[in-house]
Amino acid sequence: MANKTFKIIFSDKNKSEVVIDYTLHETLLAVKWFSKIKHLHNIDVDCVESGSEEDISDLKLIYKEFCEFADLPKISFEKIDQETCNILHKIYEKNHDRLARRPNSAILYKLHHAIHKAEKYNTGITKFRLKVGWGIKEGPLTQKMNCQPYYENNIIKNNLYLPWSELGKTPYIYWRNREPNDRERFNQLCKPHITFRANFFVAVEDIKKPWTFPNQFNQFFNQFKSQWLEKYGLDDWTEKHQWCAPLLAHTDAKINLRSMQFKKIEI
Q: How far is the C-alpha of 260 from the C-alpha of 52, rounded, in Å?
């Protein structure tokens, strides 16, 4: 698998195509990822996970559709703030296992993405990533694997990386989303990167040095950190695990991909 190369085709709003050559990174994680991609590259990506077509900005409407699918009573809320997003996320978590077994359960994941989109809008996070994923089409290719040791110390524009993909939140996002200062809830919701999916993201700009955690977060995390690291067999969880990711493939291309959409992989 050394020096394995492949191509990714991107397109812009005018349907003009750009082809970029990639070389697979030489790690066990990257090799395993590429093996998954060989099974998926001819299958259409999920438009919600890849942010390519379906609009997920109307969280109220998506939540209504979710409740109809899930046979749940709908709670009312006047505004979509972080407290509302936390409540909806808890509803999603509680019903995930039950609904994921149903056919045509895409609305479950649509709700999840809509919640996080609303959170990012509320907190003003810059879009650094062009995400690509197959959603429920990925099926049995999802596996458990500790991806933490493969994290890079920075992100390089246009390279491919493996995103964190858990049913939960990172410790930093947990704190930023003002979740309860409660050990039981923290241990229930906070996850390191231990789910290895076939999805990936293209970095649309560099992160040469991860942002430093604020002191308020460090004080909060220190209450739970030792027990949490021991639970998952981790040495540490630092800024790079929040802001960076495992490298999958690299390129010499310098083109700006910020306005592009993923079209397909050729291997």
A: 10
Number of separate domains in the chain: 1
For residue 187, being part of any structural domain is answered with yes
In a domain, 15, yes or no: yes
Q: What angle do CA 260, 262, 267 make, to 5 degrees?
A: 135
Instruction: Give the CA radius of gyration of the chain.
Output: 19
Mean pLDDT (the chain, rounded): 89
DSSP state at residue 13 = T
Q: What pLDDT, in 10s, does the model give residues 69-125?
A: 999 999 888 888 888 988 998 898 889 889 888 888 888 888 888 888 888 654 444
Domain contains 183: yes
The model's pTM: 0.84
Q: What are the angstrom distances between the C-alpha of 155 and each of 45, 69, 102, 255?
A: 24, 39, 37, 16
Contact 244, 164 (CB under 8 A): no
pLDDT at 211: 87
Which domain covers residue 198, as residue numbers? Answer: 5-53+126-266
User: Smallest Cα–Cα separation from 101: which of 79, 128, 132, 70?
Assistant: 70
